[in-house]
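debug: dumping io for the single-chain case to check the tokenizer round-trip. Nothing else runs in this session.
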Amino acid sequence: MKKVILSLFTSICVLSSFAQQIPLQTQYLYNYSSLNPAAVGENDYVSLRASARNQWTNFSQNDISTEHITLTNGFGNTGIGVTLANHETGGYFSTTSFKLAFSHRVIVSGSDFYIGTQKVVLPKSELYLGISGGAKKYNEIEAVNDAAVLANTPLVPQATFGIYYKIKDFNIGVSIPGILNSNIEITENTNVDEAHLYAMMSYTRKLNDFWKVQPSVLMKAASEEYYQFDANVNVKFRDKVWLGTSYREDFGPSVYVGLDFGRLFSIYSNDISTNKMSNYSNGTHELTIGYDFKPLSPEEKVVKKEKVVLDSDNDGVVDSLDLCPNLAGSVEAHGCPDVDKDGIPDQYDLCPTIPGNIEAGCPDLTDIEKQIIKDVIENLNFEQGSDRIKRSSYENLAKLAIMLKQNPGMFLEIHGHASAEGESTYNLGLSARRAKSVERFLLQRGISQNKLLIRFYGEESPLNSNLDERQRSLNRRVEFSIRFHLNDQEEVRRIEKAYNDALLNANILVPESSIENQIEEVDDGLRITRSNNQIVIRNYNSMEIQNEISNTDQFNEDFDSSFTNDVEEIVAEEKSTTVITDPDSYFLLVVGTFSSKENATKFIKKSKDNLRYKELNDRYYVYAYSSSSKEDVKRFKLSYANCNGCWIK
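debug: decoded output
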């Protein structure tokens, strides 16, 4: 009788050399709620875990195995879970159990305190309290011919209490299963389901963007005399691959490997026995599979949306809203390239390297720049009947030169005007010489010829009625206008209309003109910063301006004859009203007009460009490009670097 009872009791406890009545688990970290009911509320989503363990393979005729299925879900500060388990002891009995678990979470606010002079800061943490209840059924596998062994054993009630604490990267848990100390009732004698103590601690450390390490330890105690330690270390690569090892006291080491696919994961481990059991078994194998029914993260929502919505160029703008669906660009420019980042696509931007919102992506002048132009206009004076600039005008012209140097995207139009003394032909020539005089002033200060455009009007646009010398002196003037492109208003309107039409076709609201990140500062002088291209006008001081206007005596010397001839040719060009009426004629991009073939030929020889000339009505027009299409000539003009006031005829 005693031998039979001893054999039965040993079969129930065969999984533990310390007479523990709860099956061992190597992968407890990945199904921790099966040991501690407080952990069922850890995640605010449904989690499913299934594990199977085959202990000491080939040790006995019957398998020694354990299977767990756990389902948990957290609801805010509350969690519930259910666990089903089956345990094959390899002897006379097997067990089947179920339990329901409940947990409650308490948020612990962060705090700080001092130990001596050292301040200690505790971050916010979470404390979970849990309890589970259920029953275990002992199932007879083989008939035992002994009256002391009871058949048809009843359900044995079970209860477990647990505490689970999470603070930053540390997790600490304590659970006590078997707190009811129920009588198992498999024999006539009393066989109690003893209480056990499980204490666990783990720590997670991110080493870099690729690796994480997680050491942990589990202590199990069945009484004051029987306890056991598991030490575990696992590493994770790219949050995808687990590699780990552990060591269980009196049993030996384990190695395991796992794969994490985000919501689905699986882990396999192999326990290697180093005790006496190694002579009788082929090791222990354990497999855990888990699935988390967690909601999509913001990143996953974006990926899912991209799979549904087509974005051919992968620039973050879907094709239906992308003005350039096959060319990657910025979101602000509706999927098109935008070099100056002003929100206007380069293909619709007349100033693609300067941020702006005026005239198809070009900027407006700042208040300081407008003031510079205003000061020059109001203070630029000439000697009566002469193209000689008065010295009092040099300071403001010097400021204009500095502004042009520091703003490479600017073009300056110079408009020459004269008063009504003398004949109109003379006055037209005088206005031309005055405009050229200002141009020469700027050229001598390093301004590129390509940035200056000359226009002159003679006495045709007076500011007043020319009744007295004061009024006439005001009419002897040179005016200026700043441009950031050389297109006429017709071309500007065409480009702006094309951009608005493209927005409307894509069902995009046509925005009001705006420009972001434009900064303007005034600090005891002049200082401008215009957005990304950093157009700056520094603070002017008297020394800088004086350097710009020094050595002016040579500037006021009489023009040589070649300069005078150039002025006469420009005057003649402006006076010409000849129109080509031949329907087969071409449009010309004219760069110069001459009264003789010889002068036109000399001009062409001096130029590095491939120029030609055409004679019309006794005038010789030197041109850089010709086409039967005016649009072709316009496009060529935009790309022609040496235009310098060229025009289409």
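debug: round-trip ok. Residues 1-20, 513-584 have pLDDT under 50 and may be disordered.
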